[in-house]
Amino acid sequence: MFSCRIGAVLSLRGTTLALALASALGATPLLAREMPEAGTAAAVKKPNVVILATGGTIAGAGADAANSATYTAAKVPVDKLIAAVPQMSTIANVRGEQVFQIASESFTDAQLVQLAKRVSQLLKQDDVDGVVVTHGTDTLEETSFFLDLVVKSDKPIVVVGSMRPSTAISADGALNLLDAVTVAASKESVGKGVTVTMNDYIQSGRDVNKRTNVVPSAFYSQWGPLGMVVEGKTYFFRSLAKRHNMTSEFDIDQIDSLPLVGIVYGSGNMIPGVYDAEVQAGAKAIVNGGTGNGSVPGYLVEKLKDIRAKGTIVIRSSRVPDGFVLRNAEQPDDTYDWVVAHDLNPAKAKILAAVALTKTSDTKDLQRIFWEY
Ligand code: GLU
């Protein structure tokens, strides 16, 4: 029942978009013009894009159009998402697969690995030019970074979500999805790393993070977006400086599971036993999301030195959203054999640590990896 309504809302919004897009191109409005039929030369020339749907708000549905924040995530199946944005078919031959139907906070490492293997498998096919992953926004920054690290392909991979469910007034999912397909279908996106299209911007999947939970302008990178998508065209202005995809030393074809990595959030008056609990639970590394420059309270230094001496990797990240942790500044990392997370927030540092630990547990090598990725 929801899906019909969703389709209607999105189609209305999409019609406006299609008309604007067509007039900008100086073309006959898209919906007034005949779509190229499958098998015609025009259809054959279009890139092939696969949408892998995993759930989230972009597939969410609320009871009323006024519900922009109260709704159920992960409801609308991929075929309905595709049907609701017919303008995508003027850009690419689009098909979809439902990989999961979950809210992104429920992602497990096993699901991350499964998703990355499917992305990798698809991009090895000659008949796939790009992949779009629809995703909840809560952990979108982790998945986009993970795919950036482990999928060995130069073909575009775009991760997309929305902040409002498709049933809400001014829902952002339809345009975000159209933009995602535009980026995935564009030759300009080749080799740019995993990207995220939210709110008209093309962001680097490595850099971006969610900064607010209530408005469409939720995704931000302290280093700026890579570019924008406007009316069906990509505009890139910078490139990712870090190793990714084809220049990465990691390959999802060689990863079947991830080691456990824990995070401890820094604050005043911390509870030392939390670190012991994570080690006992099997954490191979602990990311300390410290205050300021990844600071460790004086009363915890011996605890973290002890944990490291017993074999667990200690990584200093920061709870401060911008800037980067400096090695040997706030703490003598060389002396304590700790690693610093550079500019990666704790959640992203956890992803890189887990991936890196599939290859090495040497702290010098781990630090090199944190500088390079
Ligand atoms: N918490 C849900 C998720 O991450 C909904 C939030 C969203 O997608 O914006 O899937």
Main sheet attributes: strand count, strand direction, barrel closure: 8 strands, mixed
Instruction: Please state the second-level CATH architecture of the largest domain.
Output: 3-Layer(aba) Sandwich
Bound molecules: glutamic acid
- Per the CATH scheme, the topology name of the largest domain is Rossmann fold
Output the number of helix runs: 11
* Computed CA radius of gyration, to the nearest angstrom: 22 Å
From the spread of the alpha carbons, the general shape counts as: globular
**Largest sheet, spatial ordering of strands:** 2-1-3-4-5-6-9-10
SSE sequence, one letter per element? HHEHEHEHEHEEEEEEEHEHEHEHH
Overall pLDDT score? 90
Whole-number total of structural domains = 3
Cα-to-Cα separation, first versus last residue: 45 Å
Beta-strand percent range: 15-25%
Helix content: 25-40%
The CATH C-level class name of the largest domain: Alpha Beta
Low-confidence stretches: 1-39
Question: Structural class given helices, strands, pairing?
Answer: alpha/beta
CATH superfamily of the largest domain: L-asparaginase, N-terminal domain
- Number of DSSP strands? 14
Concise overview:
This protein has helices at residues 2-24, 41-45, 78-83, 109-123, 140-150, 173-185, 273-280, 298-309, 333-336, 346-357, 363-372; strands spanning 48-55, 93-102, 130-134, 157-160, 195-198, 201-204, 209-210, 219-220, 227-230, 233-236, 261-265, 285-290, 313-318, 339-340. It is an alpha/beta fold.
